[in-house]
Each structure stands twice: as structure tokens, then as C-alpha cells.
Amino acid sequence: MTDSLDRFHEQWRTSIDDRDRFWLEQSKRIDWSRAPRTAIEDAGDSWSWFPDGELNLSYNTLDRHIEAGRGDAAAVIFDSAMTSESRTYTYHQLRDETAIFAGVLREQGVRRGERVIIYMPMIPEAVVAMLACARIGAVHSVVFGGFAANELATRIVDAGARILVMASGGLEPGKVVDYVPLVREALRLSDGAIDTVILKERDGFPTSIEDVPAGAGATWLDWSELAESANPAVPVPIAANDPLYLLYTSGTTGNPKGIVRDSGGYAVALDWSMRNIYGAGPGDVFWTASDVGWVVGHSYIVYAPLLIGATTVLYEGKPVGTPDAGAFWRVVEQHRVNVMFTAPTAIRAIHRIDPDLEQLARYDRSSLRALFLAGERLDPETYQWITAGLGVPVIDHWWQTETGWAISANPVGFGALPLKAGSSTVPMAGYDVAIVNSKGREVETGREGNIAIRLPLPPGTLTGVWGGPHRLRDSYLNVFPGYYATGDSGYFDNDGYLFVMGRTDDVINVAGHRLSTGALEEVIALHHDVAECAVVGVRDALKGQRAMGFVSLKSGRSVDESELRAQLVDLVRTRIGPVAAFRDVMFVDRLPKTRSGKILRKTLRQIIDGEPYRVPATIEDTSVLDPILAAAEAARAPII
Ligand code: COA
Ligand code: AMP
After folding, report:
1. Cα(415) to centroid of ligand 2, in Å?
2. 114, 265, 467, 524: most buried by Cβ count inside 10 Å?
3. C-alpha–C-alpha distance, residues 602 and 179, integer Å
4. Residue of the nearest CA to atom 29 in ligand 1?
5. Same structural domain for residues 420 and 520?
6. What is the pTM of this model?
7. CATH number, domain at 618?
8. Residues of the domain holding 579
């Protein structure tokens, strides 16, 4: 198709056919305390990248830049649209704060390999806490601040953590989210698993450490006080495939999976991605408007920009309402952002409020070279709109918590390939992507099927699911033998461009946040009036998808529907979190099922979305669909 596509294809081919040499070559850009001689040890259903290498990611993201004379360069720009505060940390300052907090953790007895839960909003101390864990070989597990106490407790227990690092809370438009009561509840629910809580106090929050009664589930310590007396810790060499972090994500069941990431493969892959996908280098200002609680934040707010010596922007705020739909463009101008990354939903939120991009015209965005989007499918309309308005390449790229970096993208640093609306372009180095049918056989080009990746996966991707090797096999490898099952469906066109169309499982994506409909169903079913429920992800113009619950009541119950709806919404907010944005409940007499008892979730979703649907011949009684059809029809009717 073009020169750049041919040249990239050649590089991609080498990454597959001459895998070991390719990745060993890439690994030379990282500073190792023991350089790897072996690229991969591959046992078929498990593999490990750079098994004989040793390194430290805190050293690679901080100290090495200082040693190279770039200690005074900006490492982090903290910009809070909530408090109008803006603060820059040089590499020197960030290293010193990290070394001190690593000393704090060590003085609390944190050992190598031990898991530390981090429950923090978008403040610099979240980055410090993550890198401090990496410095001493502890394994961090960051839990997103929009998650409820119950979800936090589940992660504490699964990770087997005894230390929790937190801040007073987060700032959301019009409200203060006080973390202290949430954490106290999580401590109660996790039954004494946590023995020490380290609290970073923020001004203006209702609860301070003095308000926490002695013996409230754990010993509560003040971050700032501990930091005053701690000795800085030096980075310790870590085996390349030892875990760097656990990051929990939703699967099909109610229990989130702890994705395990290594250090060596991750560093090599992120470095490759920064140069080739994002076209970014030392000194560039890289801004990922996401959250450190998500994988996008781990990789492209924290590790990757700092690894290459760029400046990362840590933004506490929203795309709209903080204070207006020009918030993103203000940050681009103020900090001279070169490369930006966010979720399509954020762009749709701006579109809704500022369709003519009047706010954009107020700001100088000449520094911006490209906008990258991921987290959910980039719909062609949003793609066209923002491309026309911004005048720089807008790149959709597809990846998952599991992979840690893009599976398919447009390698801008390599020489951007022609863009196609609706496509996340082509597979990246080391990803051998195939489209397979339900039996695991490859389908012909142009046909939609399950997207699978031939094993082994490239460096940087998950090395396991916390809790044992069987979890990786059961969740991802046994589905299509020889492949990793992504859980997404899609197709390749004749130019080798990949189109990712949606999930094949019960995972839904609400405003770029990944949720399990199974987990939502479990929570709704806790209500004593609920007999049965089904949750499906229906189309949403702003958030991509939203969760909709179909609920049947226990026989003989007569309830006030609006009151019950409010109770169910509240239940989801307190058990899962406000971020689930659960609001839609439809009460039905019975759920549509096949004779074998399978709920017709797909049919429900198709009816609500107004798509053609097929009623399986095995359905028990088609009349149960009538009220759902009528309600969907009424919802679509124009309001006169
Ligand atoms: N801590 C606590 N609560 C949080 C939170 C956090 N970090 N993030 C969101 N919430 C809460 C919100 O306050 C809101 O609560 P409410 O129901 O009481 O109002 C709820 O969770 C839903 O929030 P949100 O998803 O932000 O929806 P919204 O309707 O308020 O805003 C967008 C819509 C599009 C502006 C917003 O979803 C957004 O900025 N999305 C970007 C997504 C993103 O970065 N995804 C990361 C993947 S790359
Ligand atoms: P998460 O693990 O939270 O990052 O969510 C990963 C899931 O989000 C993927 O499996 C996809 O279903 C979806 N996703 C992420 N990026 C894209 C994209 N660019 N196009 C389509 N779907 C995407």
C-alpha cells in the first residue's frame, strides 16, 4: 500500500521470525545490572522474557537520567484542574522523594516480592509510591479511586497484602471523595489482612489521621511524618521476570483477575513503543489523560515516559466541566504537550458540549504532534470530527490490561501508515494476531471472528494471573490451544488492517472502564426482592456502553419500582463503585431463557440497541420478550 507500511511490515516480520535477536537488540536500550543473554524461555503454555537479566525500574526511570546529566529536566508536571495547582518535579526531586518513600516502606518491614496496595488519586505521591515499591522490589497493586470498599477489599485479600498506602481522597467535580471511610470499611471486609496504613494527608479533606480511632483495623501512620525521618533507599537489582505489579481487571466472573507484570520485558516493550508507536523521545512532553488506577496510567503516565526521559503530565481533572470543554486544550498549551493520549469517551464528552470546538481556538496547540486514543472502540464519527478539528494525526490503538501496551496501532515514530476510520491499524512488534472461529481455526481475510494471538506473547504482556499458573491457562490459553484469547472480536481487511468490533464475553466497557456484567449481576441479586437478573452492556452515545439491568422480582412482592430502582443503583455504587455509572433497570415478569435455562443476554442487548435480532428456536416462551420490545420501542420514539 505504501512505503511506510512495507517498511513497518518488514520490522514486524523480523520481530516474529527472528524474535530472540530482535528483542535482545531492543533490550540494549535499558540499563541492566545483569544484561540478559537469553531473550525468552518458552515452555508453550508459559514463558519468561529475559530470564537471566536483572534490573531495577526505579533506577531506569529516575537515577539513570540523573547520571546522564538530566537531573534538572522535568519528570512530572502535576496539573490539577480541581485546585488550579500546577507543580513540576525534576528527575532529581522525583528520585529523592521516591528514595525516601522507598526507605519508609523498608522501615515498615516491606520485603522484596511483598504486595503493597496503593489507593490514591491522581497526585504525584501516587507515582512516588509506585516507583518506591519498584525501587525495593516490592510489588505494587494500585486500586482505582472510583472503586468501592468491597472491590478494594477483594483486591487486598487476593493480593495477600499487609500494607496499604493511601491519600485523604480524590476530587471529583462538585464533591470530595473521602477515602478514609472507604478504606476503613475495606479493612473491616478484608478481616484484618492489612496491618499498616500509610496516609498521605491532603488539605481540605474532612478526615485527618487524628480522626481515625486507635486500633481502627490497622496501625495508621502519617506519610509526611515517616518521610521526615526515613533514610533514602537505593534501587536493588530485581530478576527481570519477577513481578513489578499486579493490576486487577474484570473478567467474566465477579472476581477480578490480578494481572501480573514483570520488569524486564515491560521495560523493553515500553521503550520500543515510545519510539515506534508514539514517536516520543527524551525531553518530549507526554500527556496521558487517564488515571494511575488503570493500565493506561501504569504504562503511559508512569513507566514509559519516565523510562525514556520524557516529561509526563499528571492531570487531576476531567475533559469537561473543570471548568469547561477547553480543559484539555488549556493543558496542551500551558505545558507544551507533544503527544497526548486519552479515551474516545473523553473526546465525545467535549464534542457534546463544544461541537464547533470554539474552546480549542482559544489555545495554542502548535506543540501537539499526535493524539492517541484507546480503552474502547473509536467510532468513525468521533474520529472524523476530532481529526478535522485538531489537524494532527488521531490514532486509535487497541490493547488491554493484560497486554500492557498496544497490540495494534499506527507506528507514528516509524512513519505513520495511512489511517482508516474504525481500524486500530496493524499488529505491533511481536504480536502475531489471528482471527479464529469458535473451534480455533483461522478464518479468511475480511471475516469477523475471535481475535487471538499466537503464543508466546511479546515482552511486556502479562506473565500470569495472580494465584497460580492454572489461572493464566484457564482464563486465556485453553480457549484456543496455541493462542492467547483476547476476548475481543474483529477482522483483518485486505491491507492487513485490524478492525476491533467488541467483546465476545461478559465484559463491558463504560467510559473506558472495564466492568464485568457478572459482577453487577451478583450485586443486584443480593437485594432481597430480586428473584433473578441479567445485566447487559447497551450502546451509549457518550460512554460507549452502559450497563442495563433486567430484573424479575420474587413472587408475591409488590414494591415501588422507583424506590427499588434507587436501592439497586445504590447497592451497585456501594459494592462496586460510582464509576460503574449504573442507572438503568427494567423490571420484567420473567427473563427470556432457552429451554436449558440460558438467559438470552445477547437478544436483550440487540433489542435495546435496536439491532436486528434472532430469537433462538429453543426459547421457552417468546411472549416474555413483548414487554421488553415495547419498552425499547417507546424509549426510541421521538418525544413530541
Ligand atoms: N474516584 C472517585 N469517584 C470517581 C472517580 C475517581 N477516580 N472517577 C469517577 N468517579 C465517579 C464520578 O464522580 C461519578 O460519580 P457520580 O455518579 O456520583 O457523579 C461516577 O464515578 C461516574 O464518573 P465518570 O465515569 O467520570 O462519568 P461522568 O459522567 O462523571 O463523566 C466523562 C463522563 C466522559 C467526562 C468521564 O467518564 C471521563 O473523563 N472519561 C475518561 C475515561 C478515561 O480516562 N478512561 C481511562 C481508560 S484510558
Ligand atoms: P482494559 O483492560 O480496561 O484496558 O480494557 C481492554 C478492552 O477494552 C479490550 O479488550 C477491548 O474490548 C477494549 N478496547 C481497548 N482499546 C480498544 C480499541 N482501540 N478499540 C476497540 N476496543 C478497545
Report:
1. 24
2. 265
3. 37
4. 581
5. no
6. 0.96
7. 3.30.300.30
8. 511-636
Closest C-alpha residue for ligand 1 atom 4: 146
Identify whether residues 207 and 93 lie together within a single domain. Answer: yes
CA distance linking residue 94 with residue 134, whole number of Å: 14
Which ligand is located closest to the Cα atom of residue 289?
Answer: 1
Asked if residue 366 belongs to a domain, the reply is: no
What is the 582 CA–ligand 1 centroid distance (Å)? Answer: 12
CA 587 – ligand 1 centroid, Å? 27
SS3 category, 118: strand
Q: How many CB atoms lie within 10 A of CB 10?
A: 10
Helices and strands (H, E) in the chain, number of each type:
21, 32
206-252: pLDDT as tens digits: 888 888 887 778 999 999 999 999 999 999 999 999 999 999 999 87
Nearest ligand 1 atom to the CA of 173 is 13
- At residue 71, the pLDDT reads 98
**Closest atom of ligand 1 to CA, residue 578:** 21
Question: Does residue 172's CB lie within 6 angstroms of at least one atom of ligand 1?
Answer: yes
Task: Please tell me the total count of domains within the chain.
Answer: 2
Q: Which atom of ligand 2 is nearest to the CA of 294?
A: 3
Three cell numbers, residue 422: 474504525
Is the CB of residue 371 less than 8 Å from the CB of residue 538? no
Whole-number Å distance, alpha carbon 173 to ligand 1 midpoint, is 10
Q: Is residue 348 part of a domain?
A: no
Map grid coordinates 488506577 to a residue.
293
397 Cβ below 6 A of ligand 2: yes
Instruction: Mention every residue, 6+ apart, whose C-beta is less than 8 A from residue 511.
Output: 343, 345, 542, 543, 544, 579, 581
Pocket test for ligand 1, best of 118, 151, 171, 172 (most atoms within 8 A of CB): 172
The verdict on residue 602 lying in a domain is yes
pLDDT of residue 1: 54
| Statement to judge: residues 416 and 478 lie in one domain | yes
CB atoms within 10 A of CB 630: 10
Indicate whether 190 and 155 sit together in one domain. Answer: yes
Distance of alpha carbon 609 from alpha carbon 606, whole angstroms: 5
Task: Read off the C-alpha cell for 480.
Answer: 484456543
Ligand nearest to C-alpha 504: 2
Q: Is the CB of 608 under 6 A from ligand 1?
A: no
Q: 82: Cβ below 6 Å to ligand 2?
A: no
From the list 125, 110, 132, 139, the residue with the least C-alpha distance to 61 is: 132
Q: Is 318 in the pocket of ligand 1 (CB under 6 A)?
A: yes
* One domain, residues 415 and 285: yes
- Starting at the edge strand found earlier in the chain, the sheet holding 483-492 runs 433-436, 449-454, 483-492, 498-503
CATH code, domain carrying 97: 3.40.50.12780
Position 637 scores a pLDDT of: 62
- Rounded Cα–Cα distance for residues 112 and 437 (Å): 43
Residues of the chain with pLDDT under 50: 639-640
Does 427 fall in a domain?
yes
pLDDT at 616: 79
- Residue bearing the CA closest to ligand 1, atom 25: 579
In eight-state DSSP terms, residue 302 is I
How many Cβ atoms sit within 10 Å of the Cβ of residue 401?
A: 20
158 alpha carbon to ligand 2 midpoint, in Å? Answer: 24
Q: Are residues 472 and 580 in the same domain?
A: no
Give Cβ neighbours of residue 251 (< 8 Å, ≥ 6 apart): 257, 475, 505, 507, 516
